[in-house]
Design a protein that fits this description.
five-stranded parallel sheet; binds BIS(adenosine)-5'-tetraphosphate; 5 strands; about 10% strand; 9 helices; alpha/beta; about 190 residues
């Protein structure tokens, strides 16, 4: 199996690039943002609870997200590998993911971190907010999401760096150029010279 994490701040292009990577490498895509928005739109108990955090730009509690990931992994026993998009976002989530994968005799192989300056993140998310209808894509909540990222999520990069799995990728170019930089790292891993 090949298991990849796409890491980076809100608006860095994780969702956008995951779609491209899935199409090229036939990995199973798991986006905690998409899973949570699906629960919110179906107004499940989990969704009603999660929305309170998402609308404020805060992370949803670890136990909720870890439970969701665990059942999603169990639902796809034949996957060739996974691309985790927007997960893990805390050290507790990263440790839980390591345990879940170990249970399946597999592990995270590569963590690609998209690096984008803060002004560009805000610009992209404000732009998306004009058409997305997402209640968290407005300037006030975007600022909170970015703050939450630097406080709780950025340290997760160090967790994977210590395992020798982290590669930083410039994410401020256009979608196509960023995709090329990501595939270069994936190919380097899959087809070492
Ligand atoms: P997510 O859905 O993960 O949203 P995101 O971080 O904002 O988006 P992403 O980085 O994927 O950006 P995208 O490609 O869409 O999270 C939403 C919320 O859910 C969180 O705030 C949190 O509350 C909750 N949540 C999710 N996972 C959680 C977890 N594990 N634990 C706890 N809580 C969790 O790109 C953004 C925009 O930029 C798009 O409009 C796109 O078209 C544009 N864009 C992308 N690449 C571009 C490029 N190269 N150039 C120009 N524009 C680009």
């Amino acid at each position: 199996m090949f298991n990849l994490i796409l890491f980076g701040p809100p608006g860095s292009g994780k969702g956008t690039q995951s779609a491209n990577i899935v199409a090229t490498y036939q990995l199973q895509h798991i986006s905690t943002g998409d899973l949570l928005r699906d629960e919110v739109s179906r107004q499940t108990t989990l969704g009603v609870e999660a929305r309170k955090y998402m609308d404020q730009g805060l992370l949803v509690p670890d136990e909720v997200v870890i439970g969701m990931i665990s059942s999603k992994i169990d639902d796809t026993p034949d996957a060739r590998g996974f691309i985790f998009d927007g997960f893990p976002r805390t050290k507790a989530q990263a440790e839980a993911l390591d345990r879940l994968l170990e249970f399946k005799n597999t592990e995270i192989n590569l963590v690609l971190s998209l690096e984008v300056p803060e002004e560009e993140l805000v610009r992209r998310l404000v732009d998306r907010g004009i058409t997305s209808g997402r209640s968290d894509d407005n300037e006030e909540v975007i600022a909170k999401r970015i703050k939450e990222y630097y406080a709780k999520t950025e340290p997760v990069a160090g967790y994977y760096n210590a395992q020798g799995k982290l590669e930083r990728v410039k994410g401020d170019g256009n979608i196509e150029d960023t995709f090329k930089l990501l595939t270069r790292q994936i190919e380097k891993y899959l087809l070492p010279a």
